Amino acid sequence: MSDADQIRMHAREKYVLPARQRKQKRFSINVGSVVRELKMAGRAPAVCSALKTHQFLLSNGLGLVATDGPPSGQSTTVTYTYEFVDEDRSSLEHDDSWKRLRGALKDVFRELGGGEAYLRAERGAFYSKKEGV
Question: Order of strands across the sheet with 79-84?
């Protein structure tokens, strides 16, 4: 797992989910707190980057409302304020990645005669005729 993934996962578990459970509209995350909690001394720029990525915002249903801190935006004194933009969506939907993939190739398999027909054709073509299997 990359540092960015670790940071996003920690922020989700420590800040996003509790704020959602408390039904808060807005909450803040201080970069210095995350750096200390993850023991990532000197990694404030990485924490800043991870906490404002589109991936973090989208996967948690957040909007970035404010960024407080120095002009560089790369310090342990930076604090990000978020608000939930998907209040109707439950946090459980985020936890099951497989549910989001359900039906993703439905149209493709339909064009190929269905999932079973596709698998039979792939299995039949898997071995070359030289192998005789």
Answer: 26-30, 79-84, 62-68
Q: Residue 27: enclosing H or E segment and its boundaries?
A: strand 26-30
Reported as a pLDDT band with limits 50, 70 and 90, residue 91 is very low
Residue type, 85: V
| Each residue's pLDDT tens digit, 46-69 | 999 999 999 999 999 999 999 999
Phi, psi dihedral angles at 20 (to 5 degrees): -65, -40
pTM of the complete model:
0.63
Rounded Cα distance, 33 and 77, in Å: 9
With 0-12 / 13-18 / 19 or more C-beta atoms within 10 angstroms meaning exposed / middle / buried, residue 103 is exposed
Three-class secondary structure of residue 22 per DSSP: coil
- Please state whether 61 falls in left (phi above 0), alpha (psi between -120 and 50) or beta: left
Domain positions in the chain: 3-89, 97-126
DSSP 82: E
Maximum CA extent, the chain: 69
